[in-house]
Design brief:
The complex is a heterodimer. Chain A is an all-alpha fold. Chain A is 60% helix and 0% strand. Classes of the chains: A mainly alpha, B alpha+beta.
Chain lengths: 58, 817
C-alpha cells in the first residue's frame, strides 16, 4: 500500500499531466525526483523548471 | 511492519535482564506503578526504532538515549545495554532477529540481513508512533488546534510533505523573481533599441521605416516584413560594414545615461522607503530581528539537514525527524518575521529592476569609452557595473538585503562622483568628431540597430524562458497544494469516520449517536465532538477524563489504520486506557479484537482489574500476559508468576537481605492467592473495587481448595474409584498439614498481613516462614507440570485439573439409582 506521501506525489503528477503549463519532460523529471526518496531541494526544482525543453534550438 | 515474537532485554532503562515471549499475539503487561512496565515498552521501542520516546521531545531537555538509555548502574558501560528482538514480518512471511545496543542505536545487527527484511525494519524504525503512551494521547485531544495539527502531522509524517511543498514554494518564488528581472531586462534592451532607432512607438512598421530609410540610402533592398530571423543590416557586408559607431546614436546614449543619473536620487524611492521602514521595525524590535535572523539561519539549517546531526551546531539528535521537528517549531514561532521577510524580498526585487535598467544604460557608453581609449571613463563604468551587478544579487536575497541598510539610506545607486564629468568629457570628444557622411551614418545605424535587436531578442528569449519556468513552478506548486489538500481532507474525513465508529463501539451504552468533526485549516486542525447530541464541542469541554482518554486512543487507532492500513501490525500502548471505566473496557477489548485482528498490541496497565478484564474478554490469555509485582534497582522488574521465585528468595536470604526476600514472598503470595482465587472460584467477601488484600484472599483460597479436594474424594467414592479417592484424600491431608504448619507459624502469618515487619526478622526466623508457604502453595499445583490447578467449568465445576492432565479430579458425584 502506498504511503500518504506517495499518494500525494502521484496525485500531484496526475494533476500536472493535465496542465498545459508543465511539459511532459519536466513532469518526468519531477517524477524521478520524488521517487528518489531524498529530500526535495529548491535548487533541484529550479534546475528542472529552467532546463531547456527537448528539441529547443535557441 | 512487524510482529514481535520474543524479546531479550539487558541493562536497558530499569531492566537488568528479562526475556519475554510475545508469540506474535497481543500481550498484556501489568504491575503497580514503578514496577518496570514502561521500561519494557522503552526497550522494545528502542529495539525497533533506536529511540526512546520519553527521552526525547518536549520536557525532556537534558535527557538522551545515550546517557539515560542504559540501566543506572551501567551508564558508563552502554555496550552492556542492548535489546534483542525476534520479529516476524507478515508481508514477507519471514522472521528476523534485530539486536540494538544503546552504544550504537543507529547500527542494529539484523539477521538475516536480507534487503527486504532490512527495508521493513527501516520502515518500522521510521515510525516511532507505534508507541503510544498516556502522556502522548492527550496531545491529540486537549491541545489547541495548531498544536494538534503539529502532533497529527508528526504521526502522518507530514513534515516530509511540508518539505516538498516548501521546496516548490521557494522554487516558484525564486523563479518569479528571476522572471521579474528578465522582464526588466527586456524593457531595458527595448529602450536601448528604441532610443537608437528614434521611433515614437515600438512597432515593427516604425522600426522598418527607420531601417529602410538607411537601407535605401545605401542602395540595399528594403525589408518588407520583420520576422524573428530578419537581419536589419543584411547585404551590408557586400558594400563593407563600417567599423565605426553611429555618432548620433552614441550621443543619444550618453545623453540618456546622463539624464538617468540626474533622476537616480528619486528612482526606486518607494521601494527603498519600504525596505528601510522594515529595517527600522527590526531595529526597534530586537526580538523580531532575532526571529528573522534565526529564521534565515534555521531555513538554511533545514536545507542542510542530512542526518541526525544538527548542521548549525553539530549537536547530535536521536534522529533526523526530531531535529527537523525542532527546527520547524522554531520557524513556526516567527510568523511575523516571515511576513516581514516576504515584504522585504518583494521590495528588494522591485528595486532590482531599476538596477537592471541602469545596467542596460551603462552598456553602450562603456563600449564607446573603451573604443575611444578613454580609460578613466571606461574604468569608472566598469567598476560601477560590477558594483551594480552585486547590488542586484543582494537585493533578491535576505542575507544580501540585511547588509544594505547604509547603502540604501545614502542612495542605493552609489553613483561614482566623477562619472557625470567623465561622461560629459566623452560626449564632448564624440561631438568634436567630424559629422559622419550619410553613408557611414546609414551603415553604423544599421549595424548598431542589428546589435541592439539581437540584445532585445536575447532578452525576450530569456524572458520567455523565465516566464515558462515561473509559470511551470507556480503550476507545480499549486498542483502539489491541491493534491495535498485533497488527500489530507479525504484522510481527515476517513479518520473522523473511523474515530466516531471506534468511540461509539466503546461507549455503545451511552453515546450511540456520537459524532466528531476534524476541520483542517491552514496550520490548524480543529477537533470537535458531539456531547449527547447537544452540539459539537472541544473534547475537553464536557467529556470526562476517562472519555477523553478513550478519544485519544480511538483517534490514534483511526490515524494508524488510515496511515498503515494492512501494515498496522504492531502498537505499544503504554498505560493509555487507565481512566477508561470498567464498564467500557470490555468494549475496548472487543474493538481491538474486531477492528484490528491482525495487529499485535502490547498493552501495559498498572490496574490489576484491567489485566484480568483483558483475559476475560479474550484479548489475552495467561500465556500472553505478564505481571510484575515490584521493582528494585538491583533486580529490575520482579515477575509475579516467576517459577524461580524460591531460588530468588533463597538467594536474597543467602545475602542476608531479609527485606528483599520478604517483599518477594509477599508479592508472590499476593499474586498466587489472587490467581488461585480466580482459578478455583474462591469466594472472598466481595469488594466492589476489586482490591482484595492477601489476608482476605488466602483464607478463602485455602478453604475453597479443601472443599474441592473433599468433593473430589466424595466423587471418587461414589464412582468406587479407590485410587482417585486416595489421591484426593492425600492432597487434602497434605493441604491441612501444610495449612497447619502455616498455623504453627501463626505469629508470622499474622505478620504476613503486615509484611513489613518481616523485614525485621533475622534470616533464621524467616526461613521457616518461607518453607511453610512453599509447602502450602505446592498443594495447589500439579506434581507433574507444576502448573496451578483450576476448576472447570467455572460456574458449577465438574473437575479440578491442570493443563497437562497429570491432575484431573472428577468433582461430580455419581447420580443415585
Amino acid at each position: 500500500m502506498a504511503t500518504l506521501q506517495q499518494t500525494i506525489a502521484k496525485k500531484f503528477l496526475d494533476n500536472l499531466s493535465g496542465s498545459d503549463a508543465v511539459n511532459a519532460s519536466r513532469i518526468e523529471q519531477l517524477r524521478k525526483l520524488l521517487a528518489d526518496g531524498k529530500k526535495v531541494k529548491p535548487e533541484d526544482l529550479v534546475k528542472i523548471f529552467t532546463a531547456a525543453e527537448d528539441g529547443d534550438v535557441k | 511492519m512487524i510482529k514481535l515474537e520474543s524479546a531479550h532485554i539487558e541493562e536497558v532503562r530499569g531492566i537488568r535482564k528479562l526475556d519475554i515471549n510475545f508469540g506474535k499475539g497481543t500481550f498484556a503487561i501489568s504491575g503497580p506503578n514503578g514496577s518496570g512496565k514502561s521500561g519494557v515498552i522503552d526497550a522494545i521501542e528502542f529495539g525497533l526504532t533506536g529511540q526512546i520516546g520519553r527521552l526525547t521531545g518536549r520536557g525532556t531537555k537534558g535527557l538522551s538515549v545515550a546517557e539515560h538509555g542504559p540501566h543506572v548502574d551501567k551508564t558508563k558501560f552502554p555496550d552492556a545495554a542492548f535489546v534483542e528482538l525476534k520479529v516476524f514480518i507478515p508481508s514477507l512471511g519471514k522472521s528476523a532477529k534485530i539486536t540494538r545496543k544503546v552504544s550504537a542505536p543507529r547500527k542494529p545487527k539484523i539477521v538475516p540481513a536480507d534487503a527486504d527484511i532490512k527495508a521493513v525494519l527501516d520502515e518500522t524504525a521510521d515510525h516511532p508512533e507505534i508507541t503510544l503512551s498516556r502522556r502522548e494521547i492527550l496531545r491529540f485531544i486537549l491541545v489547541e488546534p495548531a498544536k494538534r495539527s503539529e502532533e497529527i502531522q508528526t504521526i502522518l509524517k507530514l513534515e516530509e510533505i511540508g518539505q516538498t511543498r516548501g521546496a516548490l514554494n521557494t522554487a516558484q518564488s525564486r523563479l518569479q523573481t528571476a522572471h521579474k528581472i528578465a522582464a526588466g531586462q527586456v524593457q531595458a534592451s527595448r529602450d536601448t533599441l528604441q532610443r537608437h532607432l528614434r521611433i515614437a512607438t515600438f512597432q515593427a512598421a516604425e522600426l522598418l521605416a527607420a531601417v529602410n530609410e538607411r537601407r535605401v540610402a545605401l542602395g540595399l533592398t528594403p525589408i518588407e516584413k520583420l520576422t524573428a530571423v530578419t537581419k536589419l543590416d543584411a547585404g551590408l557586408s557586400e558594400t563593407g560594414k563600417a567599423p565605426e559607431f553611429n555618432k548620433a546614436s552614441v550621443l543619444r546614449d550618453l545623453k540618456a545615461l546622463t539624464e538617468a543619473l540626474g533622476l537616480l536620487p528619486n528612482a526606486g524611492k518607494e521601494e527603498v522607503a519600504s525596505i528601510l521602514s522594515s529595517m527600522a521595525r527590526l531595529e526597534s524590535d530586537p526580538a523580531l530581528l532575532d526571529a528573522l535572523q534565526r529564521r534565515a539561519l534555521i531555513e538554511k539549517g533545514l536545507d542542510l539537514i542530512d542526518g541526525p546531526d544538527c548542521p548549525l551546531c553539530d549537536r547530535p539528535w536521536d534522529d533526523e525527524e526530531h531535529l527537523r521537528d525542532h527546527l520547524n517549531a522554531k520557524l513556526a514561532k516567527s510568523e511575523e518575521a516571515g511576513k516581514l521577510q516576504g515584504e522585504l524580498l518583494k521590495s528588494g526585487s522591485d528595486l532590482a529592476r531599476y538596477v537592471v535598467r541602469l545596467l542596460a544604460l551603462l552598456g553602450p557608453p562603456l563600449k564607446v569609452a573603451s573604443g575611444e581609449g578613454d580609460a578613466a571613463c571606461a574604468n569608472l563604468i566598469t567598476a560601477w557595473t560590477t558594483n551594480l551587478e552585486e547590488l542586484k544579487a543582494q537585493l533578491i536575497s535576505m542575507d544580501g538585503l540585511m547588509g544594505l541598510k547604509d547603502r540604501l539610506a545614502s542612495g542605493w545607486s552609489a553613483t561614482p562622483k566623477a562619472l557625470p564629468a567623465a561622461l560629459k568629457a566623452l560626449a564632448g570628444k564624440i561631438e568634436a568628431k567630424p559629422d559622419q557622411s550619410a553613408t557611414v551614418e546609414a551603415q553604423t545605424f544599421l549595424t548598431t540597430a542589428q546589435l541592439r535587436l539581437n540584445d532585445y531578442r536575447e532578452a525576450m528569449r530569456k524572458n520567455e524562458a523565465a516566464k515558462i519556468a515561473s509559470a511551470s513552478a507556480q503550476e507545480a506548486y499549486d498542483a502539489y497544494c491541491r493534491a495535498m489538500e485533497d488527500e489530507l481532507n479525504a484522510l481527515y474525513e476517513a479518520v473522523q469516520e473511523d474515530f466516531s465508529e471506534f468511540y461509539k463501539a466503546i461507549n455503545e451504552d451511552d453515546e450511540v449517536r456520537f459524532t466528531a468533526k476534524l476541520t483542517p485549516s491552514e496550520g490548524k486542525l480543529d477537533f470537535n465532538v458531539n456531547f449527547y447530541e447537544r452540539g459539537l464541542f472541544p473534547p475537553g469541554a464536557y467529556h470526562s477524563e476517562g472519555h477523553q482518554d478513550g478519544m485519544g486512543v480511538c483517534l490514534y487507532l483511526a490515524l494508524m489504520k488510515r496511515l498503515f492500513a494492512d501494515r498496522f501490525t504492531i502498537a505499544l500502548l503504554d498505560d493509555v486506557v487507565m481512566s477508561v471505566d470498567s464498564a467500557h473496557r470490555y468494549q475496548f477489548c472487543k474493538l481491538l479484537k474486531s477492528q484490528f485482528p491482525n495487529t499485535q498490541f502490547v498493552i501495559t496497565t498498572h490496574d490489576r482489574l484491567w489485566a484480568e478484564q483483558m483475559k476475560s474478554a479474550g484479548l489475552v490469555t495467561a500465556k500472553t500476559s505478564l505481571a510484575f509485582h515490584s521493582w528494585t534497582v538491583d533486580t529490575g522488574p520482579l515477575v509475579e508468576s516467576n517459577t524461580e521465585i524460591w531460588d530468588e528468595i533463597a538467594g536474597s536470604l543467602a545475602k542476608g537481605k531479609v527485606d528483599t526476600a520478604a517483599a518477594s514472598l509477599r508479592h508472590h503470595l499476593e499474586y498466587a492467592s489472587r490467581h488461585m482465587a480466580d482459578q478455583l472460584g474462591a469466594r472472598p467477601a466481595f469488594r466492589a473495587d476489586g482490591n482484595y488484600e492477601l489476608g482476605e484472599l488466602l483464607p478463602s483460597v485455602l478453604s475453597r481448595m479443601k472443599d474441592l479436594y473433599g468433593k473430589a474424594a466424595e466423587s471418587a467414592q461414589s464412582w468406587s474409584n479407590a485410587a482417585a479417592k486416595e489421591i484426593a484424600g492425600t492432597r487434602k491431608t497434605t493441604l491441612s498439614s501444610s495449612s497447619g504448619a502455616m498455623n504453627v507459624e501463626q505469629w508470622a502469618v499474622n505478620k504476613a498481613v503486615h509484611y513489613n515487619e518481616w523485614a525485621n526478622f533475622g534470616k533464621r526466623d524467616f526461613e521457616p516462614v518461607v518453607s511453610a508457604f512453599r509447602e502450602l502453595l505446592d498443594c495447589f499445583r500439579c506434581n507433574d507440570c507444576q502448573s496451578w490447578l483450576y476448576v472447570t467449568p467455572k460456574g458449577i465445576p465438574e473437575s479440578l485439573r491442570c493443563p497437562c492432565s497429570g491432575t484431573n479430579m472428577n468433582l461430580k458425584v455419581k447420580p443415585k439409582g
